[in-house]
Amino acid sequence: MDMLAVLEGMAQIGSSPAVYAVVGRWMRLFGYTAAQAERVIKVHFEDLSRVVISDEQWALMRNTVEAQGHDQENYAHCLTRFATISPGRQQPRTATSTVKKKNKAQEYLVYLEGSLTAAEI
């Protein structure tokens, strides 16, 4: 489902249950108001430089991440939010930050930028 198309459709013909479900999920996961969620979703899909999780990457982590309430796009937004948090700021409330640590195997998706030609410390 293309979220930008859903939001544009909502603006043209009013709201639909599918749009409410998407906006509601972003509100629950990230603590946004409805207006903030709509704005952030629109900005997220308009940003061509956003983090994109490939279908292959998503297949590896889908079960774990969906159990936390995320879908492929809002999980990409979650990764972006945590990557841009400065050290002095409190982490935003998300489903992933409230999971208690247990002795379970965990899967991580690491976003790497730049050249990896030499090891740096």
From TrEMBL:
Source organism superkingdom: Eukaryota
Protein name, UniProt field: Uncharacterized protein
Species for this entry: Bimuria novae-zelandiae CBS 107.79
Lineage: Eukaryota, Fungi, Dikarya, Ascomycota, Pezizomycotina
